[in-house]
Amino acid sequence: MHARPPTVRLAQGSIRVLTPDDAEPYRALRMRALYEQPPAFGALPEDEPGLAETRERLRESLDRCYFGAFNDGCELVGIVRFSRYSAANEKHRAYLAGLYVWPDCRGKGFGRALVQRALRRAYNTPGIRRVNLTVVTTQDAAVRLYISVGFRIYGTDLQAFSSHGVLYDEHLMTMPVETAT
What's the CA gap between 179 and 181, in Å, rounded? Predict the structure, then answer.
């Protein structure tokens, strides 16, 4: 039996699963993330899908969902994706990707709450034993956040991708579900 990670109570705002109805604010926030922090994301803004495909991606399934953080004004201020690996022999693993919090809302617990909500999803998904993620090595705040909730670095992918001619390394991080906090 897996222990449950604690619930983070936000002083202001809420966290919930995004739906296709959230496609416009999600896509706007995602595009901002891609332009603001190009080395932090492997995707390029010009490769991001349009609104119709974004709606389809936001349809929750057993193996994938997107979480959103909303401030007191009900504006989407943070996002993260939870996905289970698709190959039959990898279904015991899941991964987190695309964590982003609006700059004015950083340091207020939104990022931690998003990660912990995604980890709760891992605990409640039968068969998941491990959660993985990658993070650009220079994203110090993100690395600290992930370590603080129980992830550990198990390797570094050198020159994992490039942005504007600069090569970036990524830490490979993992956490057994049994020890998530």
Answer: 6
Bridge partners (DSSP) listed for residue 141: none
Residue 85 pLDDT > 60: yes
Among 73, 164, 76, 147, residue whose Cα is nearest residue 112: 147
Q: Does 8 map to a domain?
A: no
Portion of the chain with pLDDT greater than 70, in percent: 92
Residue 152 pairs in a beta bridge with 174
The pLDDT assigned to 11 comes to 66
CATH number of the domain bearing residue 55: 3.40.630.30
Q: Output the pTM of the full model.
A: 0.89
Instruction: Find, among 91, 120, 124, the residue nearest to 180 by Cα.
Output: 120
Print the domain residue range for 40: 14-179
Q: Mean pLDDT lowest for which of 6-10, 27-31, 157-161?
A: 6-10
Structure-token pair, residue 33: 């993330």
